[in-house]
Amino acid sequence: MDHSADGFAPPRPAVRPVAVVETHPHFLRSHLQWPLFVLACLFFVATVLHGDLWLADRLYALEGGRWALRHAWATQHLIHLLGRDVSTAAWLAVLAAWLVACTRSGWTSLRRPLLYLLAATALSTLLVSWLKTWSNVDCPWDLARYGGMRAYIGLFEWRPAGMGAARCFPAGHASGGYAWLATYFFLLAVKPQWRRWGLAVGIGAGLLFGISQQLRGAHFLSHDLAAIAICWTCAVALHCVFWPPGATRSQRNLPDIAP
Predict the structure, then answer these.
(1) What would you measure as the largest C-alpha separation in the chain, in angstroms?
(2) pLDDT tens figures, 61-78
């Protein structure tokens, strides 16, 4: 029976409004501007205020006036070489998952997040590798201060032409860990309540790789800070490309975030 004519139309099911995840300025402020500001402050301390040398001096002294862990099995073979292989294998696993998602209709919702993760991790590591080719910064173990042959030249100082090239800045191995900071945004897309675990994965892997290399004398602290900044900026930038900020979660094909 049609009750609309009598003014007793049946109630319509409530439609849950779709909230906007974040406005563009708020997203950039919380996810890019503040993190980069903190990193810039730490970078200033490490470079201009010579925090790099302060920390490296103490690590060098703790190892007995030499880089005792440079060729240690745990730092060189387990964390450096095997860690690099594990990071590469993880990227290939994501590639395989994306290829499967492209062929299976049930995995449609994973195609964009997996492609994002592939692109963000690859872009981060490639950009760091490219910057290393022209930054001309020495590793600590190359410096006379730490048993090497070269004089210390700061990042912002003019390098004499006869010194030869150096390729230690930013930290390449640490970037293989920090590149996985993009897992935060991957999980934001597929399982929002797990997104902080993705952040922990990237931070944990980067710290493990970075600290290990500092203990070996391969990098200063500022090298790692630069790698973090590059990897996080790439992750945020590509997230904005794949899922423009300011759109609703339904418009971006994302699940709702649980309170």
Answers:
(1) 95
(2) 999 999 999 999 999 999
The rounded distance, in Å, linking the Cα atoms of 153 and 72 is 28
Two structure tokens written together for 100: 């499967």
Burial of 213 (0-12, 13-18, 19+ CB in 10 A): buried
| Total-model pTM | 0.86
Residue owning tokens 């935060």 = 184
245 preceded by a cis bond (ω within 30 of 0): no
How is the chain split among helix, strand and coil, in percent rounded to 5? 70, 0, 30
Q: In Å, what is the CA distance from 259 to each residue of 31, 193, 244, 256? A: 19, 9, 22, 9
Residue count of the chain:
259
Separation of alpha carbons 247 and 165, rounded Å = 47
Question: How does pLDDT run across 175-220, given as a tens digit for each residue?
Answer: 999 999 999 999 999 999 999 999 999 999 999 999 999 999 999 9
Provide the angle, in degrees to the nearest 10, between the axes of the packed helices 195-216 and 183-190.
170
User: Residue written as tokens 């390098």?
Assistant: 159
Backbone dihedral angles phi then psi of residue 150, each to the nearest 5 degrees: -100, 150
Rg for the chain, CA atoms, rounded: 24
| CA–CA distance, 149 with 136 (Å, rounded to integer) | 16
Q: Which two tokens stand for residue 88?
A: 């590469």
Half-sphere exposure of 169 (CA within 13 A, CB side): 22
224 close to 210: Cβ distance less than 8 angstroms: yes
Within 87-218, strands assigned E span none
Query: Which token pair is 50?
Result: 């010579």
Could you give the CA distance from residue 62 to residue 199 in angstroms, rounded to a whole number? 31
Report domain extents, the chain.
71-155+164-246
